[in-house]
Amino acid sequence: MNKFESRTATVFIKDQYGKFLLIWHPRWQRWMPPGGRCEPGEPDFIAAMREVKEETGIEFEFDITTLLVGEAALLPTPFAVQQELFPDNQIYNADSLYYVCVRGNSPKVTTEGSAKYRWFRADEIASMTAAVVFPDVRHHLIAIANGRYRANPITMAS
């Protein structure tokens, strides 16, 4: 196992119609789910919520279960933690991958500047090539569409 020099959190967001929210990432020139770097000392699930809000304007909170004994709480867990090697600077990253379903209509996305976003159907994602989506992202999106991962419970901001 390699030493992680960076931590990120990524959120796969699916709406009630089975569409997935992806954002065009100018640096990587690919469609990607919202996400980004964790601040020093910031828990991954907090970074996930912050990054989604910063990149899309969508606000939600993970539902946290407080245990009956003491002050302990069960924190949201990612469906996977993926090791990645950033090719441009050869740094190993630990990416915590979360999956959430939004109820009701697809939330309105508000992005700053010229950021592009789109809600994609699973069949559109299945036909995407590595030129427009990273293979691991495509794999996870298809797995989610096929019910292989369980969504984290969330509460949408009102």
Give an overview of the whole structure.
Strand 2 and strand 3 form a beta hairpin. It is built from three helices and eleven strands. The protein has one domain: Nucleoside Triphosphate Pyrophosphohydrolase, CATH 3.90.79.10. The protein is 18% helix and 34% strand. The termini are far apart. The chain is α+β, with helices and mostly antiparallel strands and 158 residues long. The longest helix is centred in the N-terminal third of the chain and has 13 residues. It is globular and about 50 Å long.
Counting helices, strands and paired strands, the structural category is alpha+beta
Query: How is the largest sheet built, in terms of strand order?
Result: 4-1-9-8
Number of E-state strands: 11
Radius of gyration: 16 Å
For the record, the CATH class is Alpha Beta
Please tally the helical runs, counting DSSP H or I stretches of 4 or more residues: 3
User: Which residues sit in consecutive blocks of at least 5 with pLDDT less than 50?
Assistant: none
Distance between the termini: 42 Å
In the CATH hierarchy, the third-tier topology is known as Nucleoside Triphosphate Pyrophosphohydrolase
Q: How much helical structure, as a percent, in the residues? A: 10-25%
Order of helices and strands: EEEEHEEEEEEHHE
What is the number of independent domains?
Answer: 1
Which geometry do the CA atoms define? Answer: globular
